[in-house]
Amino acid sequence: MTTQAQKKKGASASEHRFHNAQGAEVKTRDEAFATELGVSPEALATSAKLELHNGASVTWQVEVNYNPNTYPYVVVGGRITGTICGGTWDITGGFLGQTIRLDAKNAGSGGGCAATLTLIGEYQNPPAYRGTYGFNGATSSFKHTTIYHC
Fold it and tell me: In whole angstroms, what is the distance from residue 2 CA to residue 121 CA?
């Protein structure tokens, strides 16, 4: 494989690709959600339960609402609870696929807690994501393993 081919392969692996309900690839998230029936993205959503672990002291319950008619699955909402500043975090966006990205905002009083959270990771078997998360714009402050719950 040439160096040029390797660069192209690496570049395409990091791009976000969206598909509409008919399975056609589209350019933007908005196009993926566009419907002729005027149905909202939330009406097309289903949910998945995840649990994040970071050592012995951090366990979060994550409920992710996503559009199953897109891939990677576009996250349209959800919440994070557990040992995260003692409050609830509202998931504001992201995606699930071969990689995960969840963006959330602090929904509680927070005290000295951060205003935002970003979680990223790569898929692994058994079904889980291994990666990092951070607060207020950072994405690599802490390591995590996030597993699926059926």
Answer: 29
- In contact, 7 and 57? CB cutoff 8 Å: no
Prediction pTM value: 0.71
The DSSP H or E segment spanning 101 is strand 99-106
Q: What pLDDT digit, counting tens, does each position of 87-127 carry? A: 799 999 999 999 999 999 998 765 678 899 999 999 999 89
Contacts of 126 (CB under 8 A, 6+ apart): 147
CA angle 125–84–70, rounded 5-degree value? 45
Q: What is the Cα–Cα distance from 74 to 46, expressed in whole angstroms?
A: 11
With left for phi above 0 and alpha for psi between -120 and 50, is residue 13 left, alpha or beta? alpha
